[in-house]
């Protein structure tokens, strides 16, 4: 996703239907450099761009944010090489950029933030730190000093419905609403796209839920469908369908006539509202995210 941001920033390509002000980008790739070529090629092909992206520049060695002398040398190299200077600098990842330091140490994290601030102030740019989540996936790894120091903190999480970008902290502005995304296979890699699901009554329906809901509605039987017949019509893998069924029932989009075996499922009034919104959205009449 960060690479997608980078290439959209460097070209002015809209991101998730949102306008982008183009600028120069420097992407410090401390890990995963071997896969960059395939990812960039897939992005260019998907967006119909045959030319390289001259406004995006990759640095394939980490800059140690704990060594402020090395950080200032990086800034000097950027100032000497690029005119105008970059508006966006990506540091990927924080762990690779604190060589000899400890991400659980508030002192080391504080020094790393100070190093990022040197870049930010000297170049007048936005600095994005890419960081891993902890084992539970509920928060960032390491010292809480990082959360306290940053202006904006975003998390990207995946589930059966796709990806969700969430604003965990916004220091000087209102947090943006969750953004639903998906990964689409393309060439030998994947690209990030807006999720084809919907947000209805405050809950996001992913593609699997939308397909299951539509298949149940299309059957148009007043007494509903058994779960077996519904599964057959939805044309989805069993695990995907049964997770979607649970979501639709739990959130009130679908109801069943009894709890025991042989229950028949029907679309509720809320489910019909969702289907109407989905139909209008696919016709381009309304936006892709509704409440």
User: What is the radius of gyration computed over CA atoms, rounded to a whole number of angstroms?
Assistant: 23 Å
In order across it, which strands form the biggest sheet? Answer: 2-1-3-4
What is the averaged pLDDT score?
89
- Helix count, DSSP H or I runs of 4 or more residues: 9
Helix content: 25-40%
The low-pLDDT segments are 282-291
Reported for the largest beta sheet, the result is: 4 strands, parallel
Structural class: alpha/beta
Concise overview:
The chain is of the alpha/beta class and 291 residues long. The protein has helices at residues 2-11, 36-46, 68-81, 106-123, 145-149, 207-219, 227-234, 238-250, 269-282; strands at residues 25-29, 56-59, 88-92, 126-130, 152-159, 162-170, 179-186, 189-194, 198-200, 203-205, 225-226, 254-256, 264-267.
Task: Give a structural overview.
The structure is a single chain. With 291 residues, this protein is an alpha/beta fold. It contains nine helices and 13 strands. The chain has helices spanning 2-11, 36-46, 68-81, 106-123, 145-149, 207-219, 227-234, 238-250, 269-282; strands at 25-29, 56-59, 88-92, 126-130, 152-159, 162-170, 179-186, 189-194, 198-200, 203-205, 225-226, 254-256, 264-267. The strands form four sheets. A four-stranded parallel beta sheet has the order 2-1-3-4, with helices on both faces. A four-stranded antiparallel beta sheet has the order 5-6-7-8. A three-stranded antiparallel beta sheet has the order 11-13-12. Helix 3 packs parallel to helix 4 (106-123) and helix 6 (207-219) packs across helix 9 (269-282). The two termini are 25 Å apart.
